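Re: the multi-chain job from yesterday

Posting the exact lines I submitted so nobody has to dig through the queue logs.
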Amino acid sequence: MKREMTCIGCPMGCALEIELAADGRVLEVKGNTCKRGAKYAETECTDPQRTITTTLRCEDGRMVAVKTDTTIPKDEMFEAMKMIGGTVVKLPVMIGDVLVKDVFGSNVVATQNRS
Ligand code: SF4
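And the result, structure tokens for all chains:
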């Protein structure tokens, strides 16, 4: 079985061609210019991960931009959004402040300041 995807490791955006075994194992990756592309293809095919970027409501009603500080399994994105969605952020907030701890092993941190 073959799969095609674009590597997002850098702006070159190499077109990857992945040969998969019937059990889902990656047999070969073609089209990558560097090792990161092969690693990306392997992870994307066997254990896809995503960073969540979203906004949370502050106690004064404004929104603050946040993201997870590591990737989480793609299959857990919906559950993760449910876990953090109702959070009301106390002010002030500085970039990097942890606003929600341990969302599938990741922390949700502020990516902008709010005073
Ligand atoms: S394979 Fe390497 S060079 Fe190509 S897009 Fe991915 S990171 Fe960039």
